[in-house]
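Before we proceed, please read the two lines closing this message. Tell me what the token row says about the fold.
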Amino acid sequence: MNPTRITTVLAAALAAIALTGAGAAGAGAGALSPPAPGRPDPQIADGTLQRRLDTAGTRWKAAHLRSYRYEIQVSCFCAPRNAHVVYVVRNGVPRVPAKGEKSVATVPRLFRTIQAAIDDGVANLDATYGPRGVPKSIYIDSSAQIADEEVGYTIVHFTRLQ
């Protein structure tokens, strides 16, 4: 069998399996059902992570920092990308590098990333903060039932700009 024919047969078989699985799960219109939600991180459930985030937010506001720069080191099982991105924020407005993620382009956006993980009740969330409230690291595992969807951010070289 030629390679093109093998690819076509394989694609058709995978599509059939996906549709069969969706029908068996009771999903409509051929959509795959999302995995059953797991239990949230115990520190989300007991409010510990929310209190830490709130305290960090208070420290950040008290620092009155509007212009700063930092580097983010991304760790994930995802498509290749620039693992070290430098963000510069002037008067609260980010200058997002071409290969940067807008969702982590400012400290308040980092806070929103953490808050979204709390609100979503992820399986595992770990966030640490510096003395000004700036996140130093964020690790999010959305689901214990899914492998390799975890993402981690390490924030380094935070510098106040004039």
In short: The beta strands are 68-76, 84-90, 93-95, 124-129, 135-141, 151-160. The CA atoms of residues 85 and 128 lie 19 Å apart.
